[in-house]
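Supplementary notes for students who missed Thursday's class. We covered one full example, reproduced here. Read the sequence, then the structure, then the short commentary at the end.
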Amino acid sequence: MNASAIAAAAELILPAPAKLNLMLHILGRRADGYHELQTLFQFLEFGDELGFALRQDGQIHLHTTVDGVPHDSNLIVRAARLLQQHGNSPLGANIWLDKRLPMGGGIGGGSSDAATTLLGLNHLWQLGCSEDQLAALGLSLGADVPVFVRGHAAFAEGVGEKLQPITLSEPWFLVVIPQVLVSTVEIFSDPELTRDTPPIKVRSLLEGGGRNDCQPVVLKRYPEVRNALILLSKFVPTRLTGTGACVFGSFPSWDDADKVARQLPASLPRFIAQGRNISMLHRKLETLVKK
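Structure (token representation):
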């Protein structure tokens, strides 16, 4: 469903921004099978868009179908029902999605949609849940959801849920989208994955330290990602975000990023967006609170 159709139907329209992992270190594997991580999150001024409208019958209905994802399994629906149960709300919601972020891209599409749903319906249903409560609910849906709930660029540890807000420069990013769906489970299960990177301090990161420990495994398993990274690396230092598939490079201006984007094959999808320390979702919610 496109933006104009959502605008005609919804009472509340909110963005679900993309994110980048500017670095991702894997320190070890925990007893529960999850991995101890260190990563640096920054938001992008680009993302999905969700529309919400109240229902009085308590039903949650996502009107947009997502290929390969059953309605009740969609993180948007799961987030809405989780919040409804937590807040003991008798209200329901109609929800529409303008999907712009690729699935399996490592830029947070599903997690961001879930966070926008939690924050949006908390506002629409007037539940008054705190950010801490919403972040805790979000963590049960996925490790990346809390950073979108909190909406500030952050240094993250644990499985990604221990967040330390951080202020970064806000360059322009060219994000290239290889046409392949990368399995996060597959990457974290790979025996060749580095799992013993020593912990790093935030100060070292700000001096340009860090890498993505998943990148070698992803490049070996997915030639589409490897080829995209090689292409972009001819122009700018390039890195994988999350477990991929997207790769990115940073630029001082939109024009600089656009010049490189124009030199990439037309068959390779990409977008340009500015990095932001405060997500566009939270800036939009601020305006709603002030009204």
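Commentary. The chain has eleven helices and ten strands. The domain at 172-276 is CATH 3.30.70.890 (Alpha-Beta Plaits). If anything here is unclear, bring it to office hours.
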